[in-house]
Amino acid sequence: MDSIKLLKRLEKPKGKIDVVIDTDTFNEIDDQYALSYLIKSEDKLNLKAIYAAPFFNEKSEGPEDGMEKSYQEIMKVLELCGREDYEKLTFKGSGNYLADEEQAVDSPAARNLAELAMEREEENPLYVVAIGAITNVASAILLKPEIIERIVLVWLGGNAHDWTDNKEFNLYQDIAAARVVFGCGVPLVQLPCAGVVSSFRTTGPELEYWLKGKNRLCNYLVETTVQEAEKMEESSCWSRVIWDVTAVAWLLDGDFMLDRIEYSPIPEYDHHYAFDKTRHIIRYVYSINRDKLFEHLFRTLAK
């Protein structure tokens, strides 16, 4: 894809668009916010599929267990949203991360993404919101490289380009897959974590004011966020980053963030970026309008 075509593809979409989301929903509480936000933004976003992504930390026994738990958590969120009709559009992802940069990890999610993308006209791309490890998306690209011309990838992954390292959860566990998506030329919007999206934080009192008692979904989000924060945070005066919402918000017409064009970085295996100004371009988010986005998020979830 040449630079002019890539620039056009990286413009914010206008009108209602078709979207899929790839999410490690059981990993943290922010995925539940993001998925609910997308579902409740149906005036702008037409959700075509949901993919469960792998993860591995203290909440799972391994990547496959993380994916399975995420699949079940997706079902819980759909029930809380009253949207069980999306269950048939939900697919299990890979049971492991990409082992190298050439071999896909086959999964129902990767195959479905490739199939949906190949149904698109290049002038009407499918938007892929990815908020976990990127193996499902990278695998779809490796299975069917032609989809690069038919999708736009919006990924919350990696840290700011000037951060001291790149040890960010979604990327450092899945570096081979990250190198595929940053290197293949797919239209890519990057929302970096440390140094950018890390400013998108909320607190217990704020959640109770805006969400508590509004509906079953909101009560679940408040209760789970408070439980997670009180377990994980070192101070009783805590704030919690709701990272993944920002990837959905980039697609909405709300002036919620600032971005610019950058050359695509190279995620290295030593957990740093390398840079090369002969590479293709990406769109890089560098600032979040925290207050404006949280107000829109809270009002949307409370509907």
Give an account of the 3D structure.
- The protein is an alpha/beta fold and 303 residues long.
- It has a single domain, classed as Inosine-uridine Nucleoside N-ribohydrolase, Chain A, CATH 3.90.245.
- It is 36% helix and 18% strand.
- It contains eleven helices and twelve strands.
- The chain has helices at residues 3-9, 30-39, 63-80, 108-118, 135-143, 169-172, 175-183, 204-210, 216-232, 245-249, 290-301, and strands spanning 17-23, 45-52, 90-92, 126-130, 151-156, 188-191, 201-202, 240-241, 257-263, 266-267, 273-274, 281-288.
- The strands form three sheets. The chain has an eight-stranded mixed sheet, with helices on both faces.
- A hairpin with a 5-residue loop joins strand 10 and strand 11 (273-274).
- Helix 5 (135-143) packs across helix 7 (175-183).
- The longest helix has 18 residues, at 63-80.
- The radius of gyration is 18 Å and the shape is globular.
Kindly provide the radius of gyration, computed on alpha-carbon positions and rounded to a whole number of angstroms: 18 Å
Q: Give the neighbour order of strands across the main sheet.
A: 3-2-1-4-5-6-12-9
Distance between the termini: 41 Å
- Overall average residue pLDDT: 97
Strand content: 15-25%
Assign the CATH topology: Inosine-uridine Nucleoside N-ribohydrolase, Chain A
User: What oligomeric state do these chains adopt?
Assistant: single chain
Low-confidence parts? none
Number of strands: 12
What would you call the structural class?
A: alpha/beta
Q: What is the element string, with H for helices and E for strands?
A: HEHEHEHEHEHHEEHHEHEEEEH
The main pleated sheet reads as: 8 strands, mixed
What's the number of domains? 1
The CATH class designation is Alpha Beta
Number of helices: 11
Domain Inosine/uridine-preferring nucleoside hydrolase: 19-258
Keywords: Glycosidase, Hydrolase
Organism: Anaerocolumna jejuensis DSM 15929
InterPro entries: Inosine/uridine_hydrolase_dom, IUNH, Ribo_hydro-like
